[in-house]
Write a structure and sequence with these properties.
Layout: E1 4-10, H1 14-25, E2 31-34, E3 50-51, H2 58-78, E4 89-93, H3 96-112, E5 117-119, H4 121-127, E6 138-142, E7 146-147, H5 150-163, E8 167-169, E9 174-179, E10 185-189, E11 192-201, H6 207-212, E12 221-230, H7 234-238, E13 245-248, E14 253-258, E15 261-266, H8 301-308, H9 310-313, E16 317-327, E17 334-337, E18 344-348, H10 353-370, H11 391-403, H12 427-432, E19 435-440, E20 443-449, H13 466-478, E21 480-484, E22 489-494, H14 498-505, E23 517-523, E24 529-539, E25 542-547, H15 552-561, E26 570-573, E27 578-584, H16 588-595, E28 610-615, E29 618-623, E30 632-638, H17 642-652, E31 658-660, H18 663-672, H19 708-717, E32 721-728, E33 740-743, E34 746-757, E35 762-770, E36 779-784, E37 787-793, H20 804-807
Parallel strand pairs: 1-2, 1-11, 2-8, 4-13, 11-18, 21-31
Antiparallel strand pairs: 3-7, 4-6, 5-6, 9-10, 10-11, 12-15, 12-16, 13-14, 14-15, 17-18, 19-20, 21-27, 22-25, 22-26, 23-24, 24-25, 27-30, 28-29, 29-30, 32-35, 32-37, 33-34, 33-36, 34-35, 36-37
Length: 808
């Protein structure tokens, strides 16, 4: 076995071989994949092999669609049989919520590259004459969906990779992975040691054991999953056309034709079982392992499937598979770096690995080789989980996700598992005032306040909290609002080289004057957006850095790994040490003046500056800025004193009409102000120029910032896309992100986020379009839940475009 490799991949299932193939296709062939047994012998070999285009996430839709485009070509490219069948798929709708979801997902296809129709019962019966359609009102028809032999697909990508020059070592278990002083990794195997620049953990159900070799862990739980194959069905034998793959919430699963037999798979809503419990991980000697079948726990859903397709009920059972599949807490796979480790990556956690293996490999290969991928990786990055994802959290959320596999997801729905992992001291206080919380990176953050005890009716349309959110927004616009924003990530950067270091890392100029604040971005070598930070100069050698709650570990990596050995800088994550209240609205100055002797006048406390002051006896870092577009301050206080600060402000605010507000209101307020969102408008797919953010770049500063050369090159060469700010003549639903944008019947772009502006009474959104359609005043159409609505590009924010209110 070779002694050195640029990249070592641990694990030879569909995820590992998918990555190997695409690294080689990009020209990186100094790659060694190490598999402890035979390829596919973990969970790949026993998978049912479905490859749907229908998936409820825009970026996963691109991943799935790519696989469905590649898989039919692999046999011709490599000579390896893959058994590709393309009968299409039908997903059955039994409610209006199902239909709304289908219409939303159908919009993904215009940009992801797959066709989808919503068809009626008569058309369903034409495609599958064996189906009993009781309770069915429609179906999503994706004609390019298929299924294949999982082992064939895996071996085809492995064969293709080796044909291009990559290497595979079978029957060779990795027994240790050790970090080397120079930054390389020592990969110790049963047959020798390999020194690698980069290691990728693609070990599937073994991923946690492999991660523990480097002192890390992986947020997955291995779950048992059943499917069964029937005896041959005469009606299938007589047909010359295969029925579509069927998916149905009533059956909590899928059923299809497997040659001349039937195949039925169930994701039971209750009674799910962890594989290899209580240990939860396989023994190293495990190979092609299945578990004892338990058909009783598949009831009543298996019975529902047989009633839905009586032709299956008449056949005997030929074979039952009960194998392990790894699941993440939120569903998507883990693609990206491990927090705190350099050049150690994950490519695992795919519960639908056959459908996603090729696409995951393609986009992860791009990220590894070029620093960016051509899809938004935010929702796939393993660093979306932190230390809050302990074993109880993992088990409760993974079981929830598994059991909800065939439950229609509703927008912003709050699910019960894994809650209250991280709370501010105000959590119970705000709950008592009606706060409904949402979770971000483990933090419980107020989403809206139920002042009359109502529960939210989750819907793809405006719902019964629309007017509640309106009232919160108007309180901020007209009086003064207060919000607990403690979950923001917070860091302290200190040292004599702190400013020079941050100037090199970030695109904007870092303030040198005490109290100065800047909004800035971390860019890749290609100039694409990696992170967004707000940086305050506390002293000449001390900076207070803020970023999105969900980016806490990701941005900590940017800060630490961006540091050069010669730079005298210390970086500390102080997120848990500081609480944060936002006070905003035209009466914000009056409220703060009632609680503090500090001077909050514009002359004494300018916009985008910070000061250390005292409010109600609490020491506070007060930053005059906010994300809602009003006169206001962020108040950062020692977290142990946050309740004291809130209580004083709440009491003093009563004469001013103070009101609590939450994240729903924040989205409405920021969209009126035209503020972009990290992870939506600002992603690794785009540059600051694409995002119309050139005002946050300082090309003339020294030292040169990372990504400067690429950004200048793009500015000189021109661009193909542009972020636009839209007003939409919408119906009962607003832009969410992922909706296609059309001009003259042709798809020209995609929305990224949106909402309703309650002060301006407008439906608003952002989207990326072909640059020819980006001029202010341009009119095109946005498709929302299957209907196209006129949208107009705006030249400036609909609320306070001159920032007069914030400067007041």
């Amino acid at each position: 076995m070779q002694s050195h490799a640029k990249i070592v991949i641990v694990g030879g299932g569909i995820m590992g071989t998918g990555l190997l193939y695409h690294l080689a296709e990009e020209g990186c062939t100094d790659v060694l994949l190490i598999e402890k047994a035979e390829l596919t012998s973990g969970s790949t070999w026993h998978a049912a092999g479905q490859c749907p285009n229908f998936v409820g996430d825009y970026n996963l839709a691109k991943i799935n669609a790519y696989g469905n485009q590649l898989y039919p070509t692999l046999e011709a490219k490599t000579g390896q049989y893959v058994g590709w069948h393309a009968p299409g798929s039908l997903r059955l709708a039994r409610s209006q919520a199902d239909l709304d979801w289908f219409r939303y997902v159908r919009g993904f296809g215009a940009n992801a590259g797959f066709p989808m129709e919503i068809i009626g019962v008569d058309e369903i019966k034409q495609l599958n004459p064996f189906l009993v359609t009781d309770g069915v009102i429609a179906a999503a028809w994706t004609p390019e969906d298929g299924h294949a032999d999982p082992s064939g697909l895996c071996n085809a990508m492995a064969k293709g990779a080796t044909q291009m020059g990559a290497k595979i070592a079978r029957y060779n278990r990795v027994i240790a992975i050790n970090a080397q002083p120079g930054g390389n990794w020592e990969v110790v195997t049963e047959k020798g040691t390999v020194i690698a620049e980069t290691v990728v953990n693609a070990a599937g159900c073994y991923a946690r054991q492999v991660a523990q070799m480097v002192g890390a862990d992986v947020p997955i739980i291995n779950m048992e999953h059943h499917y069964l194959i029937t005896d041959p069905i005469p009606a299938f034998v007589e047909r010359d056309r295969e029925i579509p793959v069927m998916r149905d919430s009533l059956t909590a699963g899928y059923f299809r034709q497997e040659q001349n037999s039937g195949l039925i798979g169930i994701y039971e809503h209750t009674g799910a079982v962890e594989a290899w419990a209580p240990k939860g991980v396989p023994e190293w000697a495990s190979e092609s392992e299945l578990f004892t079948e338990d058909l009783d726990r598949l009831m009543p859903w298996l019975g529902n499937a047989l009633e839905r397709m009586p032709v299956l009920a008449d056949a005997g059972i030929k074979q039952i598979f009960n194998g392990a599949i790894s699941h993440t807490p939120d569903g998507p796979p883990l693609l990206g770096p491990v927090a705190g480790l350099k050049n150690f990556w994950l490519c695992c956690g795919a519960s639908f690995g056959i459908a996603q293996g090729a696409g995951c490999g393609k986009y992860l290969a791009q990220w590894m080789l070029y620093g960016d991928a051509d899809i938004n990786m935010t929702g796939l990055d393993p660093r979306r989980f932190g230390v809050f994802a302990d074993d109880p959290y993992l088990r409760s959320t993974v079981f929830q996700d598994y059991c909800n596999t065939f439950v229609t997801p509703l927008p912003s729905e709050e699910l019960p598992a894994g809650r209250a992992q991280r709370t501010s001291p105000l959590y119970e206080t705000l709950k008592a005032q009606g706060a409904v919380h949402s979770q971000t990176f483990g933090w419980e953050r107020p989403k809206w306040f139920s002042l009359d005890g109502r529960d939210e009716d989750y819907s793809y349309h405006r719902n019964n909290v629309f007017e509640v959110v309106r009232d919160e927004c108007l309180a901020v616009r007209d009086r003064v609002g207060i919000m607990d924003f403690t979950g923001f990530a917070k860091y302290e950067v200190r040292g004599p080289d702190a400013r020079a270091y941050l100037n090199r890392l970030c695109a904007n100029r870092i303030p040198s004057k005490q109290g100065g604040i800047t909004l800035t971005h971390v860019l890749s070598d290609q100039g694409r957006i990696q992170g967004e930070m707000t940086i305050t100069c506390i002293a000449a050698d001390f900076y207070y850095v803020l970023s999105a709650a969900s980016a806490e570990t990701r941005d900590l990596d940017h800060l630490i790994q961006g540091l050069q050995a010669k730079e005298q800088v210390s970086i500390q994550n102080v997120t848990d040490d500081w609480g944060l209240l936002v006070v905003a609205g035209p009466r914000a100055r009056d409220l703060l003046s009632a609680c503090s002797t500090a001077d909050f006048s514009t002359e004494a406390f300018r916009w985008f500056t910070g000061q250390a002051i005292t409010i109600a006896g609490v020491p506070v870092r007060a930053l005059r800025m906010n994300y809602v577009g009003e006169l206001g301050w962020e108040l950062h206080a020692p977290i142990a004193q946050l309740t004291t600060l809130y209580d004083a402000l709440w009491q003093a605010g009563q004469p001013f009409g103070i009101a609590n507000f939450g994240l729903y209101a924040v989205n409405s307020l920021r969209i009126e102000k035209g503020y972009r969102g990290w992870g939506a408008e600002l992603t690794n797919e785009v540059t600051l120029l694409d995002a119309d953010m050139e005002r946050f770049i300082r090309f003339d500063k020294k030292p040169d910032f990372n990504g400067r050369a690429a950004t200048l090159a793009q500015r000189d060469a021109g661009r193909s896309i542009q972020l636009v700010y839209l007003t939409v003549q919408a119906g009962t639903a607003d832009v969410r992100g992922g909706e296609p944008i059309y001009s003259d019947g042709r798809c020209i772009g995609v929305t990224t986020s949106g909402g309703y502006g309650h002060r301006t009474d407008q439906s608003l959104g952002f989207g990326y379009v072909a640059i020819a359609h980006s001029a202010p005043g341009t009119v095109f159409e946005v498709e929302i839940l299957g209907e196209r609505y006129p949208a107009t590009v705006l030249a400036e924010p609909v609320w306070d475009p001159s920032n007069a209110r914030q400067r007041a």
